[in-house]
Amino acid sequence: MKIDKEAQEYYAQLTAFYQQFRRIGNNYNQCVKIIHTIYGEKKSLAFLYKLAEETRKLEEICRQVIELTKRYEKEYLTKKE
Known about the structure:
Layout: H1 5-38, H2 41-80
Helix pairs in contact: 1-2
């Protein structure tokens, strides 16, 4: 049985990224609740607009991670089998 240390490291990093992504989701929900609690409607909308812009950036990063993972699996993992 051969163990691919690079693949193990890749998936360990991918798992760590996923855990960070989940934490961001939790923080996101908390931020939205606090923004609505502390600020008025106009200021809340301005903050939420900025938050939505950053969310779109994060969404693009996630798409890139998914694409890189698919490419990694196709190019490196299937060739070794």
